[in-house]
Amino acid sequence: MNKQIVFTKVNTAELLDTELLPLKENQIRVKTLFHTMSNGTEKANITGDPNISVFAKANAEVVFPRFCGYSSSGIVTEVGEGVTKFKVGDKVAMSWSKYCAYNTVPEENAVKIEDDRVSMAEASMAHIATFPLGAIRKTRLEIGESAMVMGLGILGLLAIGLLRSAGAVPVIAVDPVKERREKALRFGADYAFDPFDENFAEKVKEVTHGGVNVCIEVTGIGAGLNGALDCMAKFGRVALLGCTRNSDFSVDYYHKVHGPGISLIGAHTMARPVNETSAGMFTTADDVKTVLELCAKGRLDLESIVDEIHSPTECGEVFDRLVNDKKFPNVVQFDWEEIHNA
Q1: What pLDDT does 164 receive?
Q2: Is the dihedral of CA 284, 285, 286, 292 positive or negative?
Q3: Which of 40, 27, 56 is nearest to 131 (CA)?
Q4: What are phi and psi of 116, to 5 degrees?
Q5: From CA 169, how far away is CA 113, in angstroms rounded?
Q6: Nearest Cα to 310, choosing from 67, 10, 15?
Q7: Which of 32, 55, 109, 126 has its CA 20 to 30 A from that of 250?
Q8: C-alpha–C-alpha distance, residues 2 and 30, integer Å
Q9: Which pLDDT tens digit goes with each residue over 300-342?
Q10: With DSSP H G I counted as helix, E B as strand and the rest as coil, what are the percentages for the chain, rounded to 5?
Q11: How far apart are CA 273 and CA 91, in angstroms?
């Protein structure tokens, strides 16, 4: 049997026994060590939001149970027929994994951790870090260009560190929550602003000498996009990374987009090549490798941004807080050691 965190009904998470299925060809079995939460996706799923996938029809029927999670790390315990990249005992960062004690994934959904300087906690953030990394690549950011991040959840915070590594200057963090702004400054932002402050756009334009070249929009709400557009320099690029689950908003495209020549870039993480990397368009696996290298070489310190680590046995309480606490921390992980030692 396996242990898995399951959203059994609206606003309810439970740790359940589930079946451990036989390996198929080209699959590997991984003993999960750490799993990093994706707060926006998890909250949409557990609250019963119908718009949880860009591939699903709008307002699709809501069905429970829901099985979530996607960014984790662990050790290979078994390899299926045809597997060539891994052997038993390899440490891996996994993409599109679940909240399971043992994950069974195609070998292309894992990347071997080659450097012991990368901790398993950091490796469990590698996949989710590819989301903002892919968005940054699509903007074709140049060294010395200014960059702004709208929304400082886990994706926005990761974007701050990656923009700094990529040579953006200044890096501007934007969020209404003071604690998140302070954390972004510690992680590499040069400035941090509240979008509800009076003269917010003017303050941004002052520190960027006229406007932002690149913006990573992570709020997924219309007000966030409108606020970002007010801050942009002529010919600026805005990557739309946040999932806009509610499309009921308007933008003055004539004055905010057409006139200044702003590029709006679809940056959902699934909008990337599957097999072949090219300039500005890396595969998920190649971006995972990039994140692991940045961690190994000290360019990113992902462990420093972890707020809380919990046992999966605490999943009910953790996800209840996610639903109800507006100040739920932005980086939370599950450590599966207690489950494996039980």
Answers
A1: 98
A2: positive
A3: 40
A4: -70, -10
A5: 31
A6: 15
A7: 55
A8: 12
A9: 999 999 999 999 999 999 999 999 998 899 999 999 999 999 8
A10: 30, 25, 45
A11: 25
Q: What is the token pair recorded at 48? A: 């019963």
| pLDDT for 30 beyond 90 | yes
Report the distance separating Cα 293 and Cα 289, nearest Å.
Answer: 6
Average model confidence (pLDDT) across the chain: 96
Record the tokens describing residue 249, joined without a space: 């908003």
The DSSP output letter for 333 is E
The encoded tokens of residue 280 equal 């500005």
Which residues in the chain belong to E strands, given as ranges? Answer: 2-9, 12-18, 27-36, 71-79, 91-95, 102-106, 110-112, 147-150, 171-174, 191-193, 212-217, 232-240, 263-266, 308-310, 332-335
Beta carbons of 139 and 131 less than 8 angstroms apart? no
Question: What does the pLDDT look like over 210-226, one tens digit per residue?
Answer: 999 999 999 999 999 99
What does 162-188 look like in DSSP terms, one character per residue?
HHHHTT-SSEEEE-S-HHHHHHHHHTT
| SS3 label, residue 72 | strand
CA neighbor of 261 nearest in space, from 238, 228, 227? 238
Q: Is 199 in contact with 101 (CB distance < 8 Å)?
A: no
